Every structure is written in structure tokens, then in C-alpha cells.
Amino acid sequence: MELRHLRYFVALAEHLSFTRAARQTHITQSTLSHQIRQLEDEVGQRLFDRVGKRVFLTEAGQNLLPRVLRALGELDEGLRALSPQDQVLTGRLRIAATHTFNVNLVPACLTEFLTRNPSMRVVVEELAASVIEERLLAGAFDLGISYRPDHQQDLAFEPLYDEPLDLVLSLDHRWAARKWVRMAELHHQPVVLLSPEFTTRRLLDECFRQCGAVPHLVAEMNTIGPILGLVRRMNIVAILSRQAVPEDGTLLSVPLETPTPMRSPGVLLRRNEALPPHVASFLLTLRRACDKTSRPPRRL
Q1: Nearest-angstrom CA–CA distance, 178 and 20
Q2: Beta strands in the chain (DSSP E)
Q3: Domains of the chain by residue range
Q4: Phi, psi (5° rounding) for residue 182?
Q5: Of 10, 68, 1, 3, the residue nearest 294 (C-alpha)
Q6: pTM of the model as a whole
Q7: What CATH architecture does domain 91-161+264-293 belong to?
Q8: Is the pLDDT of residue 299 over 50?
Q9: What are the backbone dihedrals phi and psi of residue 113, each rounded to the nearest 5 degrees, phi first?
């Protein structure tokens, strides 16, 4: 059981609607339903009854809700008490992040962090995941924001949230008004994807195999910027994290279903190394930003 499961439970208990709860927590309804089933499997009881489109708390759910609310309240209060809110930090914070997280997540967290600590100097570098791991181990950065390393025992990885990958398309694409698209519908459709050396690409290849789809691969690229540029200019789609989609309104992200490609972004730190106060403070800011919504908001 993870913290996000409890926050999803509270959201659904408050709204008694998968549609409204998914909107509040910024995940798809299918993801919310999956997470609630995981929680019910963990506690060994049904927490909600589903009658058609209506949702009701079971007796077990009614008994659990006030305790979860109390526990989450105490946790949030404890985090606030531990945070060095009244201590203005100084020094230099060095962050390495992949492009996906440098678009929205890192700037949002830095805005809060630097407002609270105006004397801090921050250095952010956008790098490939493998380079982040290498240079973090060498001491060039205080932390990295990326995905779980495949083979790296000297780094600790803390997942931040579950991240479905979306279909990214232009405003005039024929699927622009769709609420979701099935992976199988990409069969023989023109797509641009990350290069095969990326873990995300291998995940997508496996999803295509599962649904029997063979997309028309027009281009493979090793950076996200050119992928987005191609999507803007051509009648073509890409599959990326919503975090990679700019907020300028020139592109749309549409959820993918059956299957939904899912990744878990997180923080990379050197294992068994004490965190300086400024690193611990930024990490808390990052956790809060991700835990508040469990994942970054969808922009449509």
C-alpha cells in the first residue's frame, strides 16, 4: 500500500464519482479504478459498491474513511513541522533532470523553493538518464529526476508517482476531440517515437505487441524537442509523458487505453549519503508537488 492509494480513496469517497475523483487527482478513470482495486486487494475488503455508474461506500469504506483522513492530516502536519520553513537556506543546489521533467515539474518546484529561499543558487542541467546516473555518482549533482535505473546498485531511487504515457497530437488532428484512444487504433498509423535505446521506447514496443498493433514508424528521435516539432508540423502522433507537453496550447495530450503505458518517475540519490538541508528541503518540495495531485495535471 502506498500513500497515493489512500489519497485516491479519499477523493473517490468525497465525490462518489470516478469521473470527478479522476479529474481531481489528474489521472484517467481506468487508472483510478485500478488503484482502488489494488487498495481493496491490500485491505482484503471491498471499500466501494458500484451500481451502474453510481458509487457507494461500503461499511468497511465508511469505517476506514475517518481514520485515513486523520492519518493523512497528521502526516501533512508532520511534514510541515519538519520542513525548514522559517530557516532561509543558502548555498547551491545542483539538479539533473531529463527533458520530460524540465518542462513543467522542475520549474514549478523551483518557483516555490526559491521564493522560500531567495539566497539559494540553483543549477539545473537537462541530460539523458544514463548521463544523470553517471554524473550523479561522480558527485556532479545533488539529485537527479528521472526513471528507475536498470542496473545501478549505488544509487537509491524513490518513486514519485505513477505516470501514464499519452498520445500527443496537434490541434487539428482527427483525434483531437477524443477523450481516449486505444493502443490498437495506432495500427498502421504514422507515429514518431523515441529511439530504441530508451526504456520508454522498449515499454511502448511491448504495449504494441500486447495489443497486436504495428504502427507506421515515420521517425525515431533521441530528444523530445524535435519530436514535438514534428508533431506540430505533420499529421503525425507521438507517445510521451504529459510532463513533456508544453503549456502553450499548441499540442494536446490524449490518454491511451488497453493497455495504458505506465512509468514511475522518481528521484535519484547517492545511496547511504546524508542529505544537506537545502537538498532535503527541495526534495520535500518535490514530494509535495507530486503527492498533491499524485501526478502532474493533464492539459487539454
Answers
A1: 18
A2: 48-51, 54-57, 91-97, 120-126, 143-147, 155-159, 163-170, 181-182, 190-194, 216-221, 237-241, 251-257, 262-263, 265-270
A3: 3-82, 91-161+264-293, 164-262
A4: -80, 145
A5: 3
A6: 0.60
A7: 3-Layer(aba) Sandwich (3.40)
A8: no
A9: -65, -45
Dist. CA 34–CA 39, nearest whole Å: 9
Q: Which residue has the cell 477524443?
A: 178
One-letter amino acid of 200: T
CA separation for the pair 255, 182 (Å, rounded): 9
For residue 155, pLDDT over 80 is answered with: yes
Amino acid residing at 30: S
Amino acid code (one letter) for 191: V
Distances from the Cα of 298 to the Cαs of 9, 45, 49, 241, in angstroms?
A: 20, 31, 28, 10
Amino acid sitting at position 157:
F
Q: Are 121 and 92 in contact (CB under 8 A)?
A: yes
- Could you give the 3-state DSSP secondary structure of residue 103? helix
pLDDT at 297 over 90: no
Options 3.90.700.10, 1.20.120.50, 1.10.10.10, 3.30.930.10; which CATH number does 3-82 get? 1.10.10.10
| Residue 273 CA: distances (Å) to CA of 83, 87, 156, 220, 270 | 19, 22, 10, 38, 6
Whole-number Cα distances in Å, 187 to 111, 199, 214, 276, 281? 42, 21, 5, 50, 46
Structure confidence at residue 139 (pLDDT): 92
Q: Is the pLDDT of residue 194 over 70?
A: yes
